[in-house]
Amino acid sequence: MENVTLRMLAEKLQLSTATISKALNNSHEISKETKQRVLALATELNYVPNPYASSLRKKSSSTIAVVIPEVADSYFAEAINGIETIAQEKGYHVLIYLTHENFGKEQAILRDFQSGRVDGILISVTTETAAAKHDLEQLAKEIPLVFFDRVCEEVAAAKITTDDVESGYKATEHLIANGCRNIALLSVSKNLSISNKRMEGFQQALAAHQLPFSESAVTYCSNDAAANHALIKNVIQLHQYDGIVATTEKLSTAIYLVCEELQLHIPNDIKVIGFSNLSTARFLNPSLTTITQPAFDMGKAAATLLFKALKSSGFNLQEENLVIPSTLMVRNSTVGK
């Protein structure tokens, strides 16, 4: 049977979790009538207080959570290093939670935080998260929360991002400047704001150079490597693209494998640019031209904001919005040797 939480009681009675907690602790701030309503429902649902959460409400856990889709992507590995740098300075522990692009798993992780296990949250959401922003909205009101990289634009919370529209434009314009006229964009989600912004930049660059945009030029991939390989192979054969913008690291390397299989030479037959922080990008054959995100700095900035909020209850965390530019690193996959 599912454990009954303060939040469940709050939702059923349409009260805040703070009011429920005070009522259960017989606070003088709560009316007798409200206390009776809360106690009656708590008894009916067999509510049992969480002693661990109770102790944490009285004393900091000295722990923050980092919720990310994966660690295999070098962006997140670098971002974690940036977060750890600040957390160690503050004497805090960092718990890493992986969602593996699964919204259900992300929801379960976020529900666990309601127990008071962590003092604050840094999160980069899954490709599916936009469908249920309301849970994040509520959580951001209860616990200091900062989005980084993948954000929910609609949620009132601090956000650390890079210039995704400008980066999408820059990547596409670079391909155009090097002779590409039939360019594809590989994306991972129709929901993620960063995916949509990178596509927006892609469209703007095509328009600025009087090149037509077609919906078929955008291919949405998944978290299934085998399915992505087949999909990328199919679109390249069907449309004979001469340039591809890959909006994630995994898709960049997938293109190399497909081109090898199709005996297409990069960059003579097709030019490739990818959003990637892969340290080995320069060692690929040919070396990969990248849009490199300031992952370490983004992690540091996100953690710095979080600790400001933890230090001062008067700090308006929700109003914070920082954009740190990415960098175009030109290598042989777009210009040749």
TrEMBL record:
Listed GO MF terms: DNA-binding transcription factor activity; transcription cis-regulatory region binding
InterPro entries linked to this entry: HTH_LacI, Lambda_DNA-bd_dom_sf, Peripla_BP/Lac1_sug-bd_dom, Peripla_BP_I
The UniProt record lists the keyword Transcription regulation: yes
Organism domain of life: Bacteria
Annotated organism of origin: Chitinophaga niastensis
Protein name (Swiss-Prot/TrEMBL): LacI family transcriptional regulator
Entry keyword Transcription regulation: yes
SUPFAM superfamilies per UniProt: lambda repressor-like DNA-binding domains (SSF47413), Periplasmic binding protein-like I (SSF53822)
UniProt domain HTH lacI-type: residue ranges: 4-58
Swiss-Prot/TrEMBL keywords: DNA-binding, Transcription, Transcription regulation
